[in-house]
Automatic annotation (TrEMBL):
<dbReference type="GO" id="GO:0005829">
    <property type="term" value="C:cytosol"/>
</dbReference>
<keyword id="KW-0808">Transferase</keyword>
<dbReference type="Pfam" id="PF01648">
    <property type="entry name" value="ACPS"/>
</dbReference>
<dbReference type="GO" id="GO:0000287">
    <property type="term" value="F:magnesium ion binding"/>
</dbReference>
<feature type="domain" description="4'-phosphopantetheinyl transferase N-terminal">
    <location>
        <begin position="24"/>
        <end position="114"/>
    </location>
</feature>
<dbReference type="InterPro" id="IPR055066">
    <property type="entry name" value="AASDHPPT_N"/>
</dbReference>
<dbReference type="GO" id="GO:0019878">
    <property type="term" value="P:lysine biosynthetic process via aminoadipic acid"/>
</dbReference>
<dbReference type="GO" id="GO:0008897">
    <property type="term" value="F:holo-[acyl-carrier-protein] synthase activity"/>
</dbReference>
<dbReference type="InterPro" id="IPR050559">
    <property type="entry name" value="P-Pant_transferase_sf"/>
</dbReference>
<dbReference type="Pfam" id="PF22624">
    <property type="entry name" value="AASDHPPT_N"/>
</dbReference>
<dbReference type="InterPro" id="IPR037143">
    <property type="entry name" value="4-PPantetheinyl_Trfase_dom_sf"/>
</dbReference>
<dbReference type="InterPro" id="IPR008278">
    <property type="entry name" value="4-PPantetheinyl_Trfase_dom"/>
</dbReference>
<comment type="similarity">
    <text>Belongs to the P-Pant transferase superfamily. AcpS family.</text>
</comment>
<feature type="domain" description="4'-phosphopantetheinyl transferase">
    <location>
        <begin position="120"/>
        <end position="236"/>
    </location>
</feature>
<protein>
    <recommendedName>
        <fullName>L-aminoadipate-semialdehyde dehydrogenase-phosphopantetheinyl transferase</fullName>
        <ecNumber>2.7.8.7</ecNumber>
    </recommendedName>
</protein>
């Protein structure tokens, strides 16, 4: 079912943001096979190529969260309605007027946002650097990703841990914007300059951050920033939305809650599909959870 305007979904909120701690999810055989049947076959095959369980789970849950939001908004309950554009952004084969959605996964969480507005982008980051270099070396390598003013904000704290937190907060803002406009990180990020007015606090949503693009203020964009927990921050970029509230970040606790109303794809040859998904489970369970540090 594909609806064409917000008036047909009057019971749904304007925007919804949901999160799932995919790192804590230990799929059973039945859950993993069901999950693979709830996404497109091409997506299942793509996820099967991940080297580690953590990455496979995060990507899988991202696709399932998108499907949940589409079903909850009564936009679609078919996995075949989802596809990717040339920039790998998830889109609907038959777009619904005035509706957009986006997904992100990093660290322990997968998150998805959807709603009736012009454009949406979301990004989540774990505020922890594990790259092996010193923080000054890491910052030097990333110097061209931020403007001078943004680097002043990032380096303002004396404690390196706080600097890293500021870095990843700024990164989520940049990424949410470029994902919303659909260009990915191919854009010169120094064209985008964020001004941060408040510190993030657990349990609060900030909407005070502003952006300039090519030196021009863009007040039509709203950025919603949230600490999901003590280690993860996220940003949602919203364009063309009068209601400035995304609402709370809904954390979903169980696999069953995510998939309860989702319909699996229909197959013309179920015995072939049974063999394929069973092979996907065998591949998944043999992998390490994450790289050894």
């Amino acid at each position: 079912m594909c609806m064409t305007d917000r008036s047909m979904c009057t019971s749904a909120p304007a925007l919804r943001l949901i999160a799932f701690n995919s790192a804590r999810w230990i799929p059973t055989r039945e859950e993993w096979i069901l999950a693979n049947r709830l996404i497109q076959r091409s997506e299942a095959e793509r996820i099967s190529r991940f080297a580690f369980k953590k990455d496979a789970k995060a990507s899988m849950m991202g696709r399932l969260l998108l499907r949940k939001l589409l079903a909850d908004f009564r936009i679609s309950n078919s996995c075949d309605d989802l596809e990717r554009n040339s920039d790998e952004r998830p889109i609907l084969k038959r777009p619904t007027r005035g509706f957009d959605f986006n997904v992100s996964h990093q660290g322990n969480f997968s998150v998805a946002v959807a709603g009736f507005c012009g454009k949406l982008g979301v990004d989540i980051m774990q505020m922890q650097y594990t790259g092996g270099r010193t923080i000054p070396e890491f910052f030097r390598l990333m110097s061209r990703q931020f403007t001078e003013d943004e680097w002043v904000y990032i380096r303002r704290p004396s404690d390196e841990k706080d600097q890293v937190a500021n870095f990843y907060r700024m990164w989520t803002l940049k990424e949410s914007y470029v994902k919303a406009i659909g260009v990915g990180l191919a854009m010169d990020l120094q064209r985008i300059n964020f001004s941060v007015c408040e510190q993030l606090r657990l349990g609060e949503q900030l909407r005070s951050t502003t952006v300039k693009v090519d030196g021009t203020a863009r007040p039509e964009w709203t950025f919603h920033e949230i600490l999901v927990d003590d280690e993860h921050c996220l940003a949602v970029a919203v364009f063309g939305q009068d209601d400035k509230s995304v609402g709370r970040c809904e954390q979903i606790d169980s696999f069953g809650q995510v998939v309860s109303n989702l319909q699996p794809r229909t197959e013309t040859c179920s015995d072939v599909d049974d063999r394929l998904v069973d092979e996907l489970w065998s591949q998944f369970k043999e992998r390490a959870e994450k790289p050894c540090l």
